[in-house]
Design brief:
Largest sheet: none
Strand content: under 5%
Distance between the termini: 27 Å
Order of helices and strands: HHHH
Helix content: 55-70%
Shape: globular
Number of strands: 0
Length: 103
């Protein structure tokens, strides 16, 4: 899993993302990895919604991907699952970066 080069100044969003990435890396099964990535998105969006009053369109891609993962939890092979997990974290970093100037 590649790591973007975040500026690490967003505080809580950065910590949410990094803690969940750690759990994904430590998970033993693909299902556990998908669950941790989905939990990251849920926690990050929840935090950002409270702090920044997100608009629905700010989270549409994350919501769609999370729904896809839920529907296909046991159907994805390791490569497909890892690609979706990487995409989930990319979207989380993008959401963090969109609002990081407010921190």
């Amino acid at each position: 899993m590649s790591t973007p080069n975040p500026r690490r100044n967003s505080g809580a969003p950065y910590i949410i993302i990094c803690s969940r990435r750690t759990l994904v890396l430590a998970a033993k099964t693909i299902v556990e990895k998908i669950c941790h990535a989905s939990e990251c998105a849920a926690e990050l969006v929840g935090h950002m919604a409270i702090v920044h009053k997100l608009k629905p369109e700010d989270t549409l891609e994350i919501s769609d991907l999370q729904h896809y993962l839920m529907d296909n939890l046991t159907k994805l092979n390791k490569r497909e699952a890892q690609a979706k997990i990487d995409e989930m974290f990319r979207l989380c970093y993008e959401l963090e970066e969109k609002y990081e100037d407010e921190y």
